[in-house]
């Protein structure tokens, strides 16, 4: 806001992506500060993970890494309450399975909504959009009862199966498919005698690849982070997701902070890795979804 | 079923045919045509069916069934669960712990959402400029959103700790006495809201940014010709044009914010987490639902009643928000 006044007089500039307004030093300053505030808690988590517990009692707090990481990891993996490795493995299985399924079913349904004609199409699409607004989390109690009925309590399918499709995924793929796949291409494939399934597989899916990748990344990260439902249904401490391992770690009587932070740091690593490699695509996906929604 | 009929159909025609090679060809056409019709008419429903079936079983049915359960005295261990009508709701209305959780939920929601959306709007305005290293800055604001909620809550719990927390240390540097963040309602709300805002401000900023970039440039150019300064342009063009996006973000924040669970739970690690602290300082409605529906009480009926009260609250708050924002926008354009 402060920077607005002195910018008003300047003519709109053509450079740097054709933006209307140029950035002043204050703009950069504010954004760099925001970036630092964003990164600091994560950075500090890694610092504590490499230090001994003494670091927690030091003022001013240490802000550079130490050499205690191996010892912390050893204590973490040996912690009898956390089952940390099982948690990591379980989370990888759950997030992986959900991701593959969401991308597959969403692209299939998104293609149908975008490119196929059928009765009730618009109404059903509205239903899908409406499901995104429904707080389904409030149904945990009957969902829990359902899982007991199926004998799925404490088992991974209890957290996998309810996540196999999302309204968000279908909607996102529908939006992308309606502009990324040309009708001519589909017609041409039909004339050549392709069935709809073949069209989906050979024509549509390749065209949807960029959006499918973003959807996959977002789904993986959301599922990896999921806490409430696993917390409700996975009560066996020996078979947790990694988020439940973290909770078990942090809820002990004796708070071994460097060990706990080592856990949170390792649990965050896969997400950071995905974000650093695919950050541009993820940002593009979020912003594109916003414009059309 | 219908698929089998289509395949069976050519048989009568096939026996009537003469030589084997032409017979095959003739028979082939109707099958193909019908398969084709089936493909065109029916297969779209097959492609969208998985979503609807799974959503019905694992989304809609549990939510609806919650209402049914809430009308019963339903205990996990009890053999039968008699219908009790609105008794659970009546009990809720007289339950101080329930009202405490309502106040906490609304308090945290207001303290977190209002600054969050204003900050996001401002950040988006900053990002909507000719920036160098654009992607880097965007990643910078988004990175909190991709970290694990549980991990963040644990880290913030430490940052806000009374003895050696970094925040109290910083406050001490500027001469403010250490605050027992978990010790009172307001401070616990502020701490939890900080976590929520840290995580979601950048995400909302990117959504606002996307909408800002879709605003036609000539609007600003015309306004600039008319002598409107940037601050005025922001409030008279940007904000009104963003109204649908703002409404969208407010609704999403309402739905998410009122269901807040993980952050306050882990913030209170070690001290009665599900109760949100020893005196229920930051117990939200979802936490209270959990406390009643699962360990230690396993009172499904009472928990379900809480879930539906929360559902009603979400609907009411969402509607109020939309009405307020609509009103604001109208005043804005009406004042032109």
Automatic annotation (TrEMBL), chain A:
The keyword rRNA processing does not apply. It is a multi-pass membrane protein. Residues 88-278 form the ABC transmembrane type-1 domain. It is found in: Cell membrane. The chain crosses the membrane at residues 26-46, 92-112, 124-144, 156-173, 199-221, 260-278. Belongs to the binding-protein-dependent transport system permease family. This is Cellobiose ABC transporter membrane protein. It comes from Micromonospora pattaloongensis.
Automatic annotation (TrEMBL), chain B:
Signal peptide: none annotated. It is found in: Cell membrane. Residues 1-27 are annotated as: Disordered. Keywords: Cell membrane, Membrane, Transmembrane, Transmembrane helix, Transport. Residues 102-321 form the ABC transmembrane type-1 domain. Gene3D superfamilies: MetI-like (1.10.3720.10). This is Cellobiose transport system permease protein. InterPro entries: ABC_transporter_permease, MetI-like, MetI-like_sf. The chain crosses the membrane at residues 45-68, 102-124, 136-160, 241-261, 305-325. Belongs to the binding-protein-dependent transport system permease family. The lineage of its organism: Bacteria, Bacillati, Actinomycetota, Actinomycetes, Micromonosporales.
């Amino acid at each position: 806001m402060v920077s607005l006044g002195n910018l008003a007089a300047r003519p709109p500039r053509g450079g740097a992506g054709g933006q209307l307004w140029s950035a002043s030093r204050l703009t950069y300053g504010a954004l760099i500060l925001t970036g630092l505030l964003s990164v600091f808690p994560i950075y500090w988590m890694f610092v504590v993970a490499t230090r001994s517990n003494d670091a927690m009692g030091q003022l001013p707090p240490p802000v550079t890494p130490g050499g205690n990481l191996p010892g912390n990891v050893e204590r973490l993996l040996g912690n009898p309450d956390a089952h940390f490795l099982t948690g990591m493995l379980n989370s990888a299985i759950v997030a992986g399975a959900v991701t593959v399924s969401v991308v597959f079913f969403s692209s299939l349904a998104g293609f149908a909504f975008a490119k196929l004609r059928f009765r009730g199409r618009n109404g059903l699409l509205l239903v899908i959009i409406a499901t995104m607004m429904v707080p389904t989390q409030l149904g945990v109690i009957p969902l829990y009862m359902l899982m007991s009925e199926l004998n799925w309590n404490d088992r991974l399918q209890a957290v996998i199966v309810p996540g196999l499709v999302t309204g968000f995924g279908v909607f996102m793929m529908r939006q992308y498919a309606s502009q990324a796949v040309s009708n001519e291409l589909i017609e041409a494939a039909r004339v050549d005698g392709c069935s709809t399934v073949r069209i989906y597989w050979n024509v549509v899916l390749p065209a949807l690849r960029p959006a499918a990748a973003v959807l996959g990344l977002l789904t993986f990260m959301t599922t990896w982070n999921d806490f409430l439902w696993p917390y409700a249904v996975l009560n066996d401490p020996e078979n947790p997701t990694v988020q439940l391992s973290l909770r078990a770690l942090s809820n002990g009587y004796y708070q071994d902070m460097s060990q706990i932070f080592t856990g949170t740091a390792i649990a965050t690593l896969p997400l950071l890795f995905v974000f650093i490699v695919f950050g541009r695509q993820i940002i593009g996906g979020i912003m594109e979804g916003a414009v059309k929604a | 079923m219908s698929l089998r009929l289509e395949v069976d159909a050519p048989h009568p025609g096939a026996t009537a045919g003469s030589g084997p090679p032409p017979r095959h060809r003739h028979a082939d056409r109707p099958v193909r045509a019908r398969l084709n019709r089936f493909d065109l008419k029916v297969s779209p429903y097959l492609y969208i069916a998985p979503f609807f079936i799974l959503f019905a079983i694992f989304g809609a049915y549990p939510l609806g069934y919650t209402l049914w359960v809430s009308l019963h005295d339903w205990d996990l261990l009890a053999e039968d669960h008699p219908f009790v009508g609105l008794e659970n709701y009546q009990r809720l209305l007289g339950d101080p712990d329930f009202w405490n959780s309502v106040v906490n939920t609304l308090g945290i929601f207001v303290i977190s959402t209002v600054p969050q959306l204003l900050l996001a709007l401002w950040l988006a305005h900053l990002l909507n400029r000719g920036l160098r290293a654009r992607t880097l800055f965007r990643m910078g604001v988004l990175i909190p959103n991709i970290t694990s909620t549980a991990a963040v809550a644990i880290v913030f719990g430490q940052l806000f700790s009374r003895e050696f927390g970094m925040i109290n240390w910083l406050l001490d540097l500027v001469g403010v006495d250490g605050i027992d963040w978990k010790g009172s309602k307001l401070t616990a709300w502020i701490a939890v809201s900080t976590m929520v805002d840290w995580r979601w401000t950048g995400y909302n900023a990117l959504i606002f940014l996307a909408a800002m970039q879709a605003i036609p440039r000539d609007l600003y150019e015309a306004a600039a010709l008319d002598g409107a300064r940037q601050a005025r342009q922001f409030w008279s063009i940007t904000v009104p044009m963003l109204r649908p996006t703002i409404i969208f973000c407010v609704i999403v924040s309402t739905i998410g914010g009122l269901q807040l669970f993980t952050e306050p739970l882990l913030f209170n690690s070690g001290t009665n987490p599900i109760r949100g602290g020893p005196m229920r300082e930051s117990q939200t409605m979802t936490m209270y639902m959990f406390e009643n529906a699962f360990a230690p009480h396993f009172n499904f009926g009472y928990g379900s009643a809480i879930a539906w009260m929360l559902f009603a609250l979400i609907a009411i708050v969402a509607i109020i928000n939309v009405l307020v924002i609509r009103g604001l926008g109208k005043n804005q354009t009406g004042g032109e």
